[in-house]
Design goal:
Length: 310
């Protein structure tokens, strides 16, 4: 199969059936390198819902996507076989059943030795993805986490599993190595100083927006952590961006990163063994002019280039 997008000259970008980046839709076991799939679930949110609609919206908006990266001077369409592999099954009213289905679906993708990018869904969906990856690779993952929030918070309303607790569970279950974990874009306000206890206890590196802005962007990028050959996962919560760049999200926090700063961070990351990525917390009902979905598409574009072997 030719893993190339539909021609914008043959089918204008507002036309045709929508797939991620207008790429072929294929079965999970096909001969692609990187699969893109949706996780349409928002049963773990604590404030504004709507992220269940993100995979459909991002497919639509990614019709505007192209493959050539002007900074890297390469085209991921030419370097990788990338395909849309559909949506993961979910149960909109049951997080336990949804977790089981996500872990099973991702496990099937991994059984074919594929890499992937998933589009959620709220951030609670990252936990079962990490469970499947931990089983596949047999060791805790290195973890890059873009977010406004720490997501290491305790149970809410008596519920252990929600979008603000996935990172705590990932560390406690041994899915990720906290010493090889970095959180980028974090900012207040917090409910209290004890919200920092977990990250301080486990030695997780937390990069706040203040740290990004306190120096020249080139100086900041020079100080980003370097990753070894440990299997590495990137989880990108769209609310790491300022609400002016991403209003369509469930829990917006003022004072965030810009889309340009995020582009520069992605381009500076050195990850020799990237095994998967996700984009979460896009809520199309709260978006304006699709700018949040566009930001998600752009993050996916940067992620796909990180899979290209240098």
């Amino acid at each position: 199969m030719d893993y190339k997008p539909l021609s914008g000259r043959e089918f204008p970008r507002f036309s045709a059936i929508k797939t991620f980046f207008r790429l072929p839709y294929v079965e999970v076991g096909a001969d692609y390198d990187v699969g893109i799939f949706g996780i349409p679930f928002d049963g773990g949110v604590s404030y504004r819902p709507g992220a269940r609609f993100a995979p459909t919206k991002v497919r639509e908006i990614s019709s505007l996507g192209r493959g050539f990266h002007m900074t890297r001077m390469e085209n991921f369409f030419e370097k990788l076989k990338v395909a849309d592999i559909g949506d993961c099954p979910t149960v909109p009213i049951d997080i336990k059943q949804t977790y089981e289905r996500i872990e099973k679906f991702v496990g099937e993708v991994l059984s074919h030795n594929k890499k992937f990018v998933s589009v959620g869904g709220d951030h609670s969906t990252t936990l079962p993805v990490l469970r499947a990856l931990r089983k596949k690779y047999g060791q805790p993952l290195a973890f890059v986490h873009f977010d406004a929030h720490l997501d290491t918070y305790p149970a809410a309303w008596g519920q252990e599993y929600h979008h603000g607790a996935f990172a705590r569970h990932a560390v406690e279950e041994g899915l990720v190595d906290p010493k090889k974990m970095v959180q980028i874009g974090i900012r207040g306000p917090l409910a209290g100083g004890d919200d920092l206890d977990f990250v301080n206890k486990h030695g997780i590196r937390v990069i706040t927006v203040d740290e990004v802005r306190s120096k020249n962007i080139n100086e900041f990028l020079h100080d980003l952590p370097k990753f070894d050959n440990t299997p590495t996962y990137i989880s990108y919560d769209i609310d790491n961006l300022d609400p002016s760049c991403a209003p369509g999200t469930g829990t917006p926090v003022p004072g965030g990163l810009t889309t340009y700063e995020v582009q520069r961070i992605f381009r500076a990351l050195e990850i020799p063994n990237l095994v998967g990525c996700d984009i979460v917390e896009i809520s199309p009902p709260f978006d304006q002019s699709d700018i949040t979905a566009l930001a998600g598409m752009d993050a996916m574009f940067e992620m796909l280039h990180l899979f290209v072997k240098k």
